[in-house]
Amino acid sequence: MKLQVFHRTHYDYAAPVRDSFNEARLQPTNAEDQICHSFLLKVLPATRLSHYLDFQLNFVHLFDLTEPHKSLTIEATSIVSTPAGKLLMADHPSTPLAEMEKACGQLDRCHDFLQSSRFVEPGPDTWRLGLDAAVGLTETWQVAQAVMNYIHRDFTYMPAATHVHTHMRDVLRTERGVCQDFAHVMLGILRSLRIPSRYVSGYLYNGPADQLRGAQASHAWVEVYLPGSGWHGLDPTNNCQPDERYVRIGVGRDYADVTPIKGTYRGTGERKMSVDVQVTALDPVPVG
After folding, report:
1. How many angstroms from the chain centroid is the CA of residue 46?
2. Which of 69, 75, 188, 231 could join 223 in a cystine, given CB atoms 3.0 to 4.6 angstroms apart?
């Protein structure tokens, strides 16, 4: 599937601000058979851009605005091909859950994704939730799917219930939130079960016949590591495995590692922010 993603973030400040230093993680990766054909980043007021790859090989663009300004606009336009008929992980036997800690203990790629992070805190409560959700299951992949099913079934999708800095603990208490929150809860449960898991930031195309939550906005899901076959995605918001409708931007321990735009500035704290995301198909999409 060939998709175009337009992401626009606009800030209006109550008074002029200056010394604004920012980083943006908005460029899709070339990974998992996904191909980013083009990427254009515009910043107004105009300024020089630089970029690098971070520790997880995510694209990061840097820019700064030292002169006073009352507004800031960041626009990213991408054209991406995602694998048609993407092969999803089947329910064949994977590593038994009881052997995961031994199997992953010596792998550097797993260590960071078994620990607490800014928005994720594994503990006895999440361990208990994981055991209850996966009662009777022994294979790691089946356990991960059961945790996804539990979150999708018992948590309510409610955009106004949380904000981007809501911790997993608060979502567990209210059982309400959005895709970012559900991904953090799933990470906390899986890590407490010693299943390496990471946060994925991206976008989701909602086709004519689809009823998916989290489309036309930044989306988030989870990937789990299975020895012998690598990372595999699960989306607790929509209770499915990510397919060709999903566009990957980056991966990290949680949202803090792949925040689309973050930075600092000097000046008033009074500001208004608006975000507009549009994901459109550039090739014919069957209806029905």
Report:
1. 28
2. 231
pLDDT-based confidence at residue 94 (cuts at 50, 70, 90): confident
Residue intervals in the chain for CATH 2.60.40.2250: 2-83+259-281
Structure tokens at 146: 């059961």
| pLDDT tens track for 216-241 | 678 999 999 999 888 999 999 999 99
Q: Which helix (H) or strand (E) holds 276?
A: strand 271-281
Mean pLDDT lowest among 75-89, 155-169, 238-252: 75-89
Determine the distance from the C-alpha atom of residue 89 to the mean position of all C-alpha atoms in its chain, rounded to a whole number.
Answer: 19
Burial class for 216, CB neighbours closer than 10 Å (0-12, 13-18, 19+): middle
For residue 288, the Cα-to-chain-centroid distance in whole angstroms is: 28
Q: At 83, is the secondary structure helix, strand, or coil?
A: coil
Domain with CATH 3.10.620.30 in the chain: 97-257
How many CB atoms lie under 10 A from the CB of residue 69? 18
Greatest CA separation found in the chain?
61
Phi, psi for residue 90 in degrees, rounded to 5: -80, 170
| CA–CA dist 269, 27 (Å, integer) | 28
In terms of CATH architecture, what is 97-257?
Answer: Roll (3.10)
What confidence score (pLDDT) does residue 207 get? 76
Write 283-286 long-range contacts (CB < 8 A, 24+). 283/1, 283/2, 285/1, 285/207, 285/208, 286/209
Burial of 129 (0-12, 13-18, 19+ CB in 10 A): buried
pTM for the full model? 0.93
Q: Does domain 2-83+259-281 have CATH number 2.60.40.2250?
A: yes
